[in-house]
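REQUEST ID: PR-0412
SUBMITTED BY: lab tech R.K.
PRIORITY: routine
TASK: structure prediction, single protein chain
INPUT:
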Amino acid sequence: MSELGALQRAFGAALESNDGARRHAPLFRGPPERVLARLAVYRGNAVGASRRALAGAYPIVAKIVGEQFFEGLAREYLRGHPSASGDLNAFGEAFAGFLAAFPHTQDLPYLPDVAQLEWLAHRAHYAADAAALDPARLGAVPEEAYVRLRFALAPACALMESRWPLARIWEVHQDDFDGEFSVDLDAGPERILVCRPQFRVLVGALSAGGYRFLRGVASGATLVEALDAALAEEPAFDLGAALATWLDTGVIVDAALEADA
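STATUS: complete
OUTPUT:
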């Protein structure tokens, strides 16, 4: 390890805890007591910034558990998952797994899936933009070439399955929601699409066929392969209507014909 790398690691350790600060205090100028006091201020600022970043990525989790409890969750999470990036927008990826294992959230079994959904939405917010796909390009593809046609999802799109009604949980916790605050946790399993047509991330439920089709697209399946999987799951799946919606909302942003073998 380089001298600079060793110094950076020592500085990081000094910020992690009081013990680390005392151990590495000789690296800093000034009386030890003043060094420890300064490191404590720096540590407090770093922890506060990380905690605010976590709350920014998981506002629904924070609303569900309450501000005070979320503060405790954030402190516990930080102990085992310190930020590994200079970009705090990348902080919090493991929060869903943390909640699944945390003893004091076991009475909220849907909370890890809510956190997973929020992380997908958080990533979608910062994902790259993509140009819309001109429907005329699809109209120019001959039917016999469908076996070689592959779609691509926008970078801001993500898919997930859950046993909980995540779309409804997302809806009722939005700041501009003014309907009846009710969620039926026994509504059954749900398939979710996260996308960002313009500036706001959208979360919605998919039909079984729609989910299977988009999952196929995401895994590199051809149009025919993805459609076969969708129809096997949902015989009444309407590809034409679904494609029109996904093209309009920027879910599908590219189409290409695989070269002949």
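NOTES: The first strand starts at residue 149 and ends at 153.
REVIEWED BY: pending
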